[in-house]
């Protein structure tokens, strides 16, 4: 790849062209590069120092466990962690002061999507997932039992869907002495909503829930309602196949679904060089300019997907109300660990997180500068999610980094609002101290069970063998972790300024199960939770109609705070012997999971996809799920629950299974029978070298083998 020189930096030419000719607005290329060179000179050494602190702390913990053994006193362990600086003193009382913040983050609870920004089609789907059809979400998933009969519209299934949707309206928009199934007429007269049953006029239990309407020429009457801050749209259109058979002419119920969407530059992408980074940045730029589009073939037709417009309604008082057609978009930058060859300094790769910071914020300046048409942020904010930080000092460093980016780009202080991923053990053990470091720009704390489990295993690698992966969700540390995240958010007054978030539902095809399980997130106090698809966002939105999250915070504030001792209790077997069959089953499950994800990452550059597990159930996989499986097997290998030969054998047997699961993919390269391709070697290294990987992260090895594939392509 051709390279160019900019203020002492050796820059990949495609990146320089993208930045200088497409991306910058309000900043000259010379000012950008001179500022970025100075930023790297000043901050890259501190980035390296903080990474060394991680390694030093881990070495001390490893040595302590090696000397102490698996039986140790909790108080002694906690004192040791404080002594070495792993645990920081709790900060005094403080309050989050972030502002101004868009209402989707500060004031309304609802679902959140996370998608790879390198996939323009997925990114557009997520941006447009602000609204979704509840009828379609029920009809097309297992949320309603059975399958549609035939290729056309199945009226019997449709009737079940409509009954279920109207039953939900009875919960979200209750009527006085009537149900929505009884409504036979809907109209707006003089700005007032009129509802009729066969016997009488009826009204909403809370008339203030009626928020507006839009009467389209030769189209539906669109009625807008509000439930716990979320909008609901009831479409009345007797001309449609569904509406003509409905007593009230209702043709659809549409829900405000994905209030926010994280466009991911991190765990769900496979960006290993300047070429890949340019794809990510160009898509994010298109989202911020509002002109991203993607053309593809679907059903034998060419389809071009664009970003949805905003829509204007009339309020009952006759005023105009503009309703957003797009999710509020955040961008997830990479963490502090990885470096990139896109920009070299003194011949060395530079921190990838710093490049993400300056480029993604510069892209968002197009949105800040827009004075007409749809905007991402109505407050002129840029929302960045920063993952994989270990403790308060690293969070403070992130605050410094984004302040320097603001200065470089001429933005007011705290224009950049930060989301803090609470996914590393040292961060969750010091969460309030971490939050205090960014109290003026914090808009998000989010638990991530998957990465957090991987870090839990790696931190306690030398302590002893850990419990099987399937038992982790029942361990004491996890409940303390999930509750402690909410406790910290409420103690610091985050609601009103930012989100308290929970993690992903990993089974994109199991929506009936999700509807049963995921209501636990708003009940827990979370104002947002991750979902794997726009359809899942629509279904999860129903939970926020049922649960007033902000009202529930008052009760949660009164409970006893989560136990720090439980949080720091490693999930060890503690002398318990596992049945050999159980060990073999876990070895096979983890091996198959690792291979199923890694083969697509390394060979095809796919960072997130539905990957069939060992039972052929599709799971939404990214690097976090990989981190758990590889770290668990590395731990069991270290402590003799499995041998190297058993690992090698399981990987080979599971490679055959993964090959069979992918036989319909014409671009797939089988791993068997050679077992010597980059993908298989990467999977093998993730286990055999897992204990030596920094914090148990998978990125260094994945990048190594993916680059090998690209270089030989």
From TrEMBL:
Residues 587-684 form the Malate synthase C-terminal domain. Pathway: Carbohydrate metabolism; glyoxylate cycle; (S)-malate from isocitrate: step 2/2. Its EC number is 2.3.3.9. Residues 153-226 form the Malate synthase G alpha-beta insertion domain. Residues 25-66 form the Malate synthase N-terminal domain. It holds the Pfam family MSG_insertion. Mg(2+) binds at residues 423, 451. It catalyses: glyoxylate + acetyl-CoA + H2O = (S)-malate + CoA + H(+). The active site is at residues 332, 622. GO terms for molecular function: malate synthase activity. Its main location: cytoplasm. Glyoxylate binds at residues 332, 423, 448-451. Residues 329-562 form the Malate synthase TIM barrel domain. Acetyl-CoA binds at residues 114, 121-122, 268, 305, 532. It is found in: Cytoplasm. Involved in the glycolate utilization. Catalyzes the condensation and subsequent hydrolysis of acetyl-coenzyme A (acetyl-CoA) and glyoxylate to form malate and CoA. Belongs to the malate synthase family. GlcB subfamily. Monomer. This is Malate synthase G. The gene is glcB.
């Amino acid at each position: 790849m051709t390279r160019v020189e900019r203020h002492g930096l050796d820059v990949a030419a495609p990146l320089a062209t993208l930045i200088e000719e497409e991306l910058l607005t309000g900043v000259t290329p010379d000012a950008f590069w001179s500022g970025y060179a100075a930023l790297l000179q000043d901050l890259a050494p501190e980035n390296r120092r903080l990474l060394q602190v991680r390694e030093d702390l881990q070495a001390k913990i490893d040595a302590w466990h090696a000397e102490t053994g698996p039986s140790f006193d909790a108080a002694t362990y906690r004192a040791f962690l404080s002594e070495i600086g792993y645990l920081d003193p709790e900060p005094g009382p403080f309050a989050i002061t972030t502002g101004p913040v868009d209402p989707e983050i500060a004031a309304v609870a609802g679902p959140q999507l996370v998608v790879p920004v390198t996939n323009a089609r997925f990114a557009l789907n997520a941006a447009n997932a602000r609204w979704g059809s509840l009828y379609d979400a029920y009809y097309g998933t297992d949320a309603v039992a059975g399958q549609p009969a035939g290729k056309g519209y199945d009226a019997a299934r449709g009737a079940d869907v409509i009954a279920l949707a109207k039953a939900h309206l009875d919960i979200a928009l209750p009527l006085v002495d009537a149900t929505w199934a009884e409504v036979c007429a809907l109209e707006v007269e003089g700005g007032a909503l009129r509802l009729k049953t066969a016997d009488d006029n009826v009204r909403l239990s809370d008339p203030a829930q009626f928020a507006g309407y839009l009467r389209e020429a030769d189209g539906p009457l669109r009625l807008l309602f509000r439930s716990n801050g979320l909008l609901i749209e009831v479409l009345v259109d007797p001309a449609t196949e569904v509406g003509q058979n409905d007593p009230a002419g209702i043709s659809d119920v549409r829900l405000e679904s994905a209030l926010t969407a994280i466009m991911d530059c991190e765990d769900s992408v496979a960006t290993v060089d300047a070429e890949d980074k340019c794809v990510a940045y160009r898509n994010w730029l298109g989202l911020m300019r509002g002109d991203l589009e993607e053309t593809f073939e679907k059903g034998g037709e060419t389809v071009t997907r664009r970003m949805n417009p905003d829509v204007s309604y009339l309020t009952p008082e006759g005023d105009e109300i503009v309703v957003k057609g797009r999710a509020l978009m955040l961008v997830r930058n990479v963490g502090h660990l990885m470096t990139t060859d896109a920009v070299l300094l003194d011949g060395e790769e530079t921190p990838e997180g710093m490049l993400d910071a300056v480029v993604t914020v510069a892209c968002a300046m197009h949105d800040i500068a827009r004075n007409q048409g749809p905007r991402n942020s109505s407050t002129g904010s840029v929302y960045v999610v920063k993952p994989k930080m270990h403790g308060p000092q690293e969070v403070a460093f992130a605050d410094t980094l984004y302040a320097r980016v603001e200065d470089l780009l001429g933005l007011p202080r705290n224009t950049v609002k930060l989301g803090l991923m609470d996914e590393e053990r040292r961060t969750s053990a010091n969460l309030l101290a971490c939050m205090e470091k960014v109290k003026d720009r914090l808009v998000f704390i989010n638990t991530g069970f998957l990465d957090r489990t991987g870090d839990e295993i790696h931190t306690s690698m030398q302590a002893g063998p850990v419990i099987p992966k399937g038992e982790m969700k029942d361990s004491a540390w996890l409940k303390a972790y999930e509750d402690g995240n909410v406790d910290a958010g409420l103690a610091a007054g985050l609601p009103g300024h930012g989100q308290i978030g929970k993690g992903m539902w990993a089974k994109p095809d199991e929506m009936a199960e999700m509807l049963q399980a995921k209501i636990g997130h708003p009940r827990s106090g979370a104002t947002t939770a991750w979902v794997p698809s726009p359809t899942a966002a629509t279904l999860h939105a129903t939970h926020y109609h049922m649960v007033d999250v902000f009202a529930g915070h008052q009760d949660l504030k009164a409970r006893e705070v989560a136990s720090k001792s439980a949080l720091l209790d490693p999930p060890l077997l503690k002398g318990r012997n596992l049945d050999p069959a159980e060990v073999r089953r876990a070895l096979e499950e983890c091996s198959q999971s690792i291979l199923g994800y890694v083969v697509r990452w390394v060979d095809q550059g796919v960072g997130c996809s539905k990957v069939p597990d060992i039972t052929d159930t599709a799971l939404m996989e990214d690097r976090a799920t990989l981190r758990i499986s590889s770290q668990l097997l590395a731990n069991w290998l270290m402590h003799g629950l499995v041998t190297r030969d058993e690992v090698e054998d399981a990987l080979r047997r599971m490679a055959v299974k993964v090959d069979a699961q992918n036989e319909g993919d014409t671009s797939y390269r089988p791993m068997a029978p050679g077992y010597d391709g980059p993908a298989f070697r990467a999977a093998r290294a993730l286990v055999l070298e897992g204990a030596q990987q920094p914090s148990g992260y998978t990125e260094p090895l994945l990048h190594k083998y993916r680059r090998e594939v690209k270089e030989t392509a």
